[in-house]
Amino acid sequence: MYLPPQFKSDDRSHALALMRGHPLASLISTDEAGWPYVTHLPLHAQEQGDDLVLLGHVAKPNAHWRYLQARPQALVTFLGPHAYLSPAVYPDLMRVPTWNYLAVHCKVEARLIEEAEAKDWLLKQLIGDHEPAYAAQWRSLGEDYAHKMLAGIVAFELRVTELQCKLKLKLKLKLNLNQHRPESHAAMRQAYAAGDANAQALGEWMDRLGIGQQA
Questions:
Q1: Is residue 97 part of a domain?
Q2: Could you please report the per-residue DSSP string of 147-184?
Q3: What pTM, to 2 d.p., does this model score?
Q4: Side-chain half-sphere of 198: how many Cα atoms within 13 Å?
Q5: I need a labelling partner for 154 at 20 to 30 A (CA). Which of 19, 29, 57, 210 fits?
Q6: Residue 143 CB-density burial (10 A; 0-12 exposed, 13-18 middle, 19+ buried)
Q7: How far apart (Å, rounded) are the C-alpha atoms in residues 194 and 182?
Q8: Which of these, 123, 110, 131, lies nearest to 152 by C-alpha position?
């Protein structure tokens, strides 16, 4: 993705926070005709030593797993909070609106998981992310039912080979003006505090990153 230096984060904790806080990802591969093929699905982000892997699954009728099998390299994207930013936050009028957002892109190498026990373990990771209490109900469904459900999915491990994290939050500042504009950052923070859940989340990320606290 387009990643200007001022929006780039090399801190993996930022990427992990976004992936875990906004786990519905877009898995992008190419089909047999060479067209992009996209599946939207929740992924479990897991650190394994120095490596980062994403765990997920698709329904067996979804051809995406066949594309991963034939061409294991793929792209995964996560979109975090995003919101409109009015030019009213600036003290001068020579400004235009923009849209701020947080995003993570991962180049990955896919490996299909075929063993029922391994697929069951993977599902438990996703259950642990979203509804830990459901684990007991899953176990109570019975072995035959569980095997039937497991046979209906194809699970995979996506090992991250390249990670990009974009935090588009900083204000666009004119080169002929003082680069530190606390009044603009304060107005931006107030605007996001009064906005919807996405805007409020961007404001919380401003606090987390210390944006506007330097002056």
A1: yes
A2: HHHHHTEEEEEEEEEEEEEEEETS----TTS-S--HHH
A3: 0.92
A4: 13
A5: 19
A6: exposed
A7: 18
A8: 123
Residue 181 included in any domain: no
Tell me how far apart the terminal alpha carbons of the chain are, to the nearest angstrom. Answer: 31
- Per-residue pLDDT tens for 124-177? 999 999 999 999 999 998 989 999 999 999 999 999 999 999 999 876 544 444
Residue 214 located in a structural domain = no
Average pLDDT over residues 104-132: 96
Asked whether 155 and 110 are in contact (CB, 8 A), the reply is: no
Output the CA angle 1-203-164, nearest 5 degrees: 20
- Contact, 121 vs 135, CB < 8 A? no
CA angle 111, 124, 24 (to 5 degrees): 70
- Number of structural domains the chain divides into: 1
Query: In which element (H, E) is residue 12 found?
Result: helix 12-21
Q: Considering Cα of 114, then 116, then 122, then 127, what sign does the dihedral take?
A: positive
CA R_g for the chain: 21
* Domain extent for 19: 5-176
